[in-house]
Design brief:
Elements lengths: L3 E7 L6 H9 L4 E3 L6 H6 L6 E3 L18 H12 L5 E7 L1 H8 L4 E9 L2 H11 L3 H14 L4 H6 L2 H22 L6 E3 H6 L1 H11 L19 E3 L3 H5 L8 H5 L2 H8 L2 H9 L2 E3 L4 E3 L1
Helix pairs in contact: 5-8, 6-8
């Protein structure tokens, strides 16, 4: 029985997963297939969105609806090999722990997870902009209270700032738990290190994923794009540009930055996985 290797990026949204998927997908043995768990949603929705996809046009994704989800990755790899016989590995940017659990149950897949983690200050800044009405904030409280029953009362009653810190912890701890189950606890990279130390972090990560590093991965814009791409970074992707995003420094209030930077639960969690919160982002100790 042929086994399909799948590198699966696990992260919160807006953690830099499209950048990482493109860097990995630029490997001669890899092909990035975007956020495959959103295949149906992206294919059928209006195209004027922040995430661009080519699921309707790219032949490697043709008629996946006629297959069970358990056969998607194998079918995509077979089609990709017809275009390029050197391809052995798919890079799935689906991010979700539930998707990872589903793929783990599939005996024909060799799932290799990687945890991409972004600064909580950056994500708190994004969530303040994303959830601007009380109804959406309430939805976030209920959703994450269900995900973390032991913290439910706190998440339902705390300040909005503490809610988003709690959301960051719940989401990333779920990924850490999954990596522990799969004995892949070293497969962790921070957005800060990926964006500012790409030439050293990418080889380290690729080695954990069982692939030989190729220097030309840094020229990720040369690789053919499949699946999904962030619209706002399309130009940067085409020129292999990597820009470290620190908008939170200007957009958050200094008191908010200090509160997150000194939050003991955040610091303890990062310490437990060998990371620390620096002045500009999360980095390896």
């Amino acid at each position: 029985m042929a086994i399909t290797p799948v590198v699966l990026i696990l992260s919160t949204p807006h953690a830099g997963s499209h950048l990482l998927s493109q860097l990995l997908g630029a490997h001669s043995q890899c092909i990035s297939i975007g956020e495959l768990h959103n295949y149906r949603k992206f294919r059928d929705r209006p195209k004027e969105r922040n995430v661009i996809d080519n699921y309707s046009e790219d032949p490697i994704f043709a008629e996946l609806d006629h297959l069970p989800i358990s056969g998607w990755h194998t079918s995509i790899l077979e089609r990709a090999k017809q275009q390029n016989p050197a391809v052995t590995t798919l890079v799935d940017n689906s991010k979700q722990v539930r998707w990872c659990a589903r793929l783990r149950r599939n005996d024909v897949l060799d799932v290799r997870p990687v945890h991409l983690i972004r600064d909580p200050r950056a994500l708190v800044r994004y969530w303040f902009y994303a959830y601007t009405d009380r109804r959406r904030v309430r939805q976030q409280r209920i959703r994450h209270a269900r995900m973390a029953p032991l913290s439910a009362f706190h998440l339902l009653t705390c300040s909005e700032l503490d809610l988003y810190i709690g959301k960051w912890l719940v989401r990333n701890k779920a990924v850490t738990g999954m990596l522990g189950k799969m004995r892949c606890s070293q497969n962790v990279v921070s957005y800060h290190d990926l964006a500012t130390r790409t030439a050293s972090e990418l080889p380290r990560l690729v080695a954990f994923l069982g692939l030989p590093y190729e220097r030309d991965q840094l020229n990720y814009g040369r690789a053919e794009q499949h699946g999904t791409l962030k619209r706002e970074y399309k130009g940067a992707s085409e020129t292999s540009q990597i820009t470290f995003d620190t908008r939170w420094v200007e957009d958050l209030e200094s008191e908010q930055i200090d509160y997150i930077s000194n939050h003991q639960l955040v610091l303890d969690y990062l310490d437990s996985i060998g990371l620390e919160l620096g002045a500009r982002g999360i980095t390896r100790r």
